[in-house]
Structure formats: structure tokens, C-alpha cells
Amino acid sequence: MTTRSVLVTCHRWVGLTFGVLLFLQGLTGASIAFRDELNRVIHHGSMVVEPRDAYLPVQALIETVLRAHPELYVERIEYPPHPDEALVFRMETKGAANQRYVAVDPYRGNIKRDAPTSQWPMHWVFGLHQELLAGDTGETIIGVMGVALLFLAITAPFVWWPGRRNLKRGFTVSVSAGKYRGLRDLHRVGGILVVLLLLIWGSTGPVIVWKSEIQSVLARSVSIVFRPAPKVAERADVALLPLDEIIAAGRQRYGDARIKNVRFPGGHGRVVAIFFETLSTSRPRASDQIWLNGYTAAPLGVYEARSLPAGNVLLDLMLPIHSGEVFGIVGRVLFLMGALCLSGIALTGVWQWLERRRLQALPPMREPVNRTNLIDVVVARAWEETRSVRALELRAADGGELPPFEAGAHVDVYLPNSIIRQYSIWSDPSDRTRYRVAVLKLPDSRGGSVAAHTLQSGARIKIAPPRNTFALVEHAPEALLIAGGIGITPMIAMASRLATLRQPFTMHYCARRKEDAAFVPQLQALVPKEKLSLHFSDDPHPGRFHARAVLAAAPAGAHIYVCGPGRLIESVLAAGRELGWSEDRLHSELFKATPVDTDAQAFDLHLIRSGRVVHVLAQQTALDVLVAHGVGIPSSCAQGICGTCVTRVLDGVPDHRDRYLTPAEHDSGTVFTPCCSRARTPVLVLDL
Ligand code: FES
Known about the structure:
This protein is α+β, with helices and mostly antiparallel strands. Helices cover 36% and strands 20% of the residues. It contains 19 helices and 26 strands. The radius of gyration is 42 Å and the shape is rod-shaped.
């Protein structure tokens, strides 16, 4: 297992474990990016008030809310940033089991809105984001999730990295490549685009949640002041001062600075903490704090933003960094979009995993037809047709008839050395007692032709039922049969069939030397003399075959059938196209490894079962790349004829170049032959 695959696996499982929570955090984070503004919009009727010259005494306002809820105490008072907004009292019972917000018009003293926190949407969402509405336990879960997010952000570039040469692909979303690939791309591209934000959230979130614990650790290396809440003993003989007097005492130090909030640690009022908006630093959310004795208004502690040591500044910066406030309005908008993106990443990650599971659970692909219904045959006769061509006559081992076949059809022959090869049947299609095939011994044989040349009369082998990928249009005005070398075999069957049908046809047979041309006597017996042209490179009469001249002289509506070496086929097809022949009149069969398409595009193969992605270069075949990566795929012809390598496609669009699959199978896009076919989309997801 490589380091990368370990990282991918860890990334996947950490992501899946926290996927739902990350989705939630993204949504809630996005919602609270503009919490105050949204709050004002949502509760416009109850939060916006008509301003007057001054607030009523705050003590009177406190008494109003306490009268409404004698069972609760005031935990803090939130002062609004604008003069036309209500003061919000946060009230709760001991242990904060019951919490509510009460909005009061500070100029008139009337309660504008009074509801549990769950009915204040923005506060509820904030609680969900910060502690999952579950107090300390929820806060711990959020902290752990923050660490997980940090891990995901750190591993993301390793998982995403597409390689230096494929950087562009790393930022491409292949929507047309199917659902699985689309999800995967969205996840990867989205993740890498916001990876910096994820790093920020993953590192600041846990610090915010575990602030006091981290503060203790930080204090060992950075200067830091602790702000323990001062305590004031209860005095039965003395009453607490009115809050306005305590606030006035605070103002002696900070003048007219705007109060952000007033807090009552413990809820009894013996200690009052006033947070003033500071002008001594431009740090967002920075405040000057003064803690006062509720009985005497004497200062108990002062913490001023400008004089805080580096450790405190660092910790106090965590929240504005986490929310994007530190980067101003642009930062908040950016963080809002990033938070939505986080939800999207979580969603696509989990969805992608589910989709992958679904694809993996699909039943195995059907067996390709050439591996079933095999026929036992016996080699009834074997003879050397030329020095390099051996002819074989195959008959059913049980002596019965063989399946019918059409002119142009071939059979898959299972050779004794376990190699499967495809050979055209050259015998008369009306004769079902035998199939005759011929094998050219290739100098660069991969074992097939050599094995076929060892077959002797009496040998028993298996063959698959014939398949036809080179069908004859039987009632065309005329057929031009053009063969080169061993490509003559399907032409003999076609000539037999056309002769049986009394359909007009002409045959051109090309070979290097006269003695290399197989089946000439059979052709001369089958094709009228004036309709047969033999072209040998070593014989000037009738000379070389000129495709353009032959096609130009063909009658209107004629169909061409060409089989043989690639160069011959290309020249005939090119001539036909130049002369404006429609494609349905051009038929060809190449019984030789397909040359690499130099215009081919590179693409990726995503192997769903192993999760691996392998890259197929323009000059490689998918089969070669799979084999090079140790993926076992049975193969035989390596030219899209036998179907041995047929592989299921789960996603993406194949570019079919085989002759084995049916048009319906091509159209379905669910299977392809990796030995020769390619991809129309940047990625094919395979059932491997
Ligand atoms: S190996 Fe024969 S079709 Fe691919």
C-alpha cells in the first residue's frame, strides 16, 4: 500500500465519519456569517425601535424582565450596535437548562419579544454550530470534528494531486462523464478550492471550543494573562447597587465608549463585567473589559485590548479569523461561500461513497457470448494452401450440422495452447456440414498462428458459434470484393453467397507474389473470368491495384467489401470517401492489430472496486495500461474482435472501436473492450 493510498483511505473514512456533521457545520456556518444582519431582518418588527434621547435606567429594564420571569436570572445584556435596536436580555436558570431571550425597547421599557432561545432562529443556529445544542458534550463533539476537518484539509492536497502534467484535469469537473465521476470531481475541485478555508476552520474551531485548556498549554511558551472571574462574597446586610450606578463607575474609565454587553457571572449580580468597544486597536471583536463589585462598584479587574500579551491576542483572534471578520466584509462573504462549499463537499463525499457502494453491489457482468455455448469440432482435413497459409476443415464432433453462418462471418477458435483466435469462414454458407478456415503463419506470431499450424486431421478443438461483423448487403446493385493476402477468406464465402443469389459482383485479389496467393483455383472456379482481377506485385499484368480507378468505374449504388492489410483498407476507404460514397456502402474488416490512433486522447480509468485511477496515454491501449498496473483482464485478439476482454463500464462514455459488441451494446455504453476502445469522456469508471 502506498502512502497516498493510505491517505486516501484515511481521508475517506474520516470524511464519512464526520460527513453529516460537516454538512451541518457548513450550513450553520454560512447562516451565521451575517448573523446580526439576518437577526434584524427576521425580527424586524420586534428588534427595531423608535430612538429617543436616552435609554431608560437599565435597572428598571432588568426589573421589568425579572417580573416577567421570576424563576430566571439575567445572565447578560446585549447592547445593540445601532440606536434604533432593542436591548436583548439573555435569561436562564441555573445550569442554563432553560434559556430565553427577551428584547426590550430601552427608551420605553416595554418588552418587544420574549421567547425561548429555540424560537430565535439565528441564536438557535449559532447554538447548533457551536455546541450542537447539547452543551459541553456537543461542544466536545464539535471540537473533535474541528480536528477531523483539519486532518481532511491537510490530506486533501495529497488525495487531489493529479500529477504535474495533469494539473488542468485537477480543476475540471466532468459532468458529462456520469454521476459518479461528476460527484467525485465536484468533491475534489470544491475541496481543493477551499482547502485554505478548511485549514483555517479546522485549526481555529478547536481552539475556540477548548479555549481554556489550550490557554493553559499556550501559557508555557507564550506570555498570557488569565482572566479568572473575580468572586464577591454575599452580604446579607447590604443591597446590590442599581446597575446604572455600576455602569456609571465603568464609564469613569471608558467615557462614552459604546457598551457591547454587560455580564453577570453566576447570575447573582455581585460581580458585573462590562465589555466596552475599544478604540485602542482595530482588531475585530476586541474589547476593553472592566469587572466591578456589585455592592460597591469598585473595580475588580481591568483587561484592556491594547495591553494584552501576545498569547491573549492570539486566542482572541481565533473567533474573528474563524468567522472571516478579520478580513472585513470581503472575508465574511468569502467565508459564507466557503461554508456553503463545505456543505457541498460533505454532501458529495457521502453521496459519492453511497454511489460507489451501489456500483460495487451490481451483479457480475454476463459472460461474453464467445465463452459460452462452445461447439466441439474435429479437424476433418488440414492442408498447406501456400507456404504460409494452412487451411483447416472443421466438422461437428458429433457428426451433425453446424450452426448456420452468414458470408463474412468468423469463428473464435480455441487453440490447444489456450489461445483464442478469430478466423473467417471461407466455405459456402449454404453448406452446414463444415466450416473451412485458413490461418496465415505470422513471423511475429503471438502463439496463435503457430498453434493453428500444428493442428492435424483428427484433432478435437472447440469453437464459438460464428459471429458476423462483416455482413454482406445481399441485394445491392453490385458488390466489389477487394482482398489482400489472407483477407481473401471472407471474400470466398461472399462470392459463394452472391453466386448462389445470382447477384453481380467483381473481385480484386492482391498478393505480393503469385505463389503466396491462396485459393486461386477455387476463385477461378467460383468467379467468372472477366470479374476476377488478380494483382501480384511481382507480375506486371494486370498491374497494381488502383483503388480510385476501380471505385470510379463501379456502378452507382455498388457496395465495397475490403479485407486485408491496413494500408489496402485505408486506400480503398479513402478513395470511396473522396468519390463521395456514403459510409453504409463501405465495408471493411481488418484482421490485424489495430494501429494506435495517433489522434487519440488520453483518459483516465477509475477502477471502482480498488478505488484506483490509472491514466491511459494517447499512444497506449486501456488494456495495456491495466495489465501494466497488475489488473488481470483476460484478452485474446487485442483488436476488438473476440470479446474476451469485454469489461463493464459503470460511468463515463466509451468510444467503441471493436467489432465484437452489438450496436445495442455500443449504444448502452455499459460495456467496452479495453483492448482497442477508448473514452469520449475524460474518465471511464470500470467495474474492476
Ligand atoms: S481481446 Fe478480443 S476484443 Fe479485446
